[in-house]
Amino acid sequence: MGGSSVKINTPEEVKAKFNSYPTAIRNKLSTLRKLVHETAKEVEGIERLEEALKWGEPSFLVKGGSTIRIDWKEKTPDQIAMYFKCTSKIVPSIKKKYGDLFCYEKTRALVFKHNAKIPREELKDCIKLALKYHSIKQNL
Q1: Model confidence, pTM
Q2: Which domain does 41 fall in, by range?
Q3: Half-sphere exposure of residue 127, counting CA atoms within 13 Å on the CB side?
Q4: What is the pLDDT of residues 108-125, one digit of tens each?
Q5: Quick check: 65 and 127 in contact, CB under 8 A?
Q6: N or C, which end of the chain is more exposed by having fewer CB within 10 Å?
């Protein structure tokens, strides 16, 4: 299927950011991070996944894709979010396909309550949209 030999580059500042989160939050964000890693390995043509800090948030970048960010904010302590470029068609496309399966923050994020179960396969489908965005955006 995809290129399971995806090289993942994780700089020290990304590791430090994950270590700075409260344990329960770090575990939940780690679940999202693992889903991004798994999905990248399933997408044909992805050879390298770059992790970085963008706006102080753990971010994921691939050639031909749109940046994905994940974070937890102290002002909303009961939730985490996966952010997408707000001017892209990613969140509107997810909303059109999945309706109220996800909670949304306008056109920029999927929001997950701290104790909510994450719909893994559906979220991986959403992640694929972002990872392949520049080759599929005209069809969204």
Answers
A1: 0.94
A2: 7-135
A3: 27
A4: 999 999 888 999 999 999
A5: no
A6: N
